[in-house]
Specification:
Blueprint (H helix, E strand, L loop, with lengths): L3 H25 L7 H18 L6 H30 L8 H21 L11 H9 L1 H19 L8 H27 L5 H22 L15 H34 L9
């Protein structure tokens, strides 16, 4: 396992350099105003990484600095997800300013979570709200990845939306899901293996995947990606089919109370057989 340690360090440095290049890429493509929280996340992550490199990894100071950086980065991670949620919702003008309020509330809640975990009460970790806060922070990557996946499932299969998204939003959405998902998978892998020597290859794979994500952001995030693709109009036959489907669905929903009442009446007419007493 010793040969993996320098590999992990190289990947860590390469990831920080890729993040710095990504910030420059966003600035060059004039996308910082479009994704300010994402740019702030990258800058703070680079600053935290450089600061941690100056401390001995085996010292208590490193553990304290890592804990502080984790709390800070939690706020910015939630900010990235909230900002992405707002960019997704802007494709639907009917939502209005609610999307901005929701994003601001998510970032504020993340700040409160970080405050509760900055000086945790170690003598009473199961007290409310500290228990909920600790769980949320510990499983932050899994929660964010699941939220992004469920948003896509809801829009694609529940609402059956076929409206195209801006290429930058779709690219950011896909890569961010992979980024958070890999972080969550690495945590679970370390938890299930019990840590120890297994953490080194797990962290190596995670850093390599993060590096690929940063390179993908650099490659695909561009100014031209802010143009909304043309939305193909439905043909008259397709519109008629959708209207027919909606009428059938509405008719089925309206008939549900009558069907429930009829079923209840049938159940009342069925005699109840009781067991004979011994």
């Amino acid at each position: 396992m010793e040969f993996l340690f320098p590999v992990e360090q190289i990947l860590w440095v390469a990831s920080l350099l890729a993040e710095a290049l990504l910030v420059l890429r966003l600035a060059r493509e004039r996308l910082v105003r479009r994704f300010p929280l994402f740019a702030a996340f990258l800058i703070v992550d680079v600053a935290c990484g450089v600061a941690l490199m100056q401390i001995d990894i085996k010292s208590r100071a490193y553990a304290e600095a890592f804990r502080i950086c984790t709390s800070i980065m939690f706020v910015f991670r939630v900010g990235v997800a909230a900002e992405l949620y707002e960019r997704i919702c802007e494709h639907f003008p009917g939502i209005g300013t609610f999307r901005i309020v929701m994003a601001a509330v998510l970032v504020l809640l993340a700040g409160l979570v970080a405050m509760f975990t900055f000086r945790p009460n170690l003598a009473n970790q199961w007290a409310f709200p500290q228990t909920v806060v600790m769980v949320v922070q510990r499983f932050q990557s899994e929660i964010l990845a699941a939220a992004l996946v469920l948003t896509w499932i809801f829009l694609r299969f529940v609402l059956s939306i076929r409206q195209p998204f801006r290429p930058n939003v779709w690219t950011h959405w896909s890569i961010a899901t992979i980024y958070f998902g890999v972080s969550g998978a690495a945590y679970w892998a370390g938890l299930l293996t019990g840590g120890g020597l297994a953490l080194l290859p797990i962290n190596t794979v995670m850093l390599a995947t993060h590096l690929v994500c940063f390179l993908a952001w650099i490659r695909f995030m561009q100014r031209a990606g802010e143009e909304l693709p043309a939305f193909s109009r439905l043909s008259p036959d397709q519109v008629q089919a959708v209207e027919s489907y909606n009428r059938d669905l509405l008719r089925a929903v309206r008939s549900l109370p009558d069907q429930i009442s009829a079923r209840q009446a049938e159940n009342r007419d069925i005699p109840v057989h009781r067991a004979r007493p011994l």
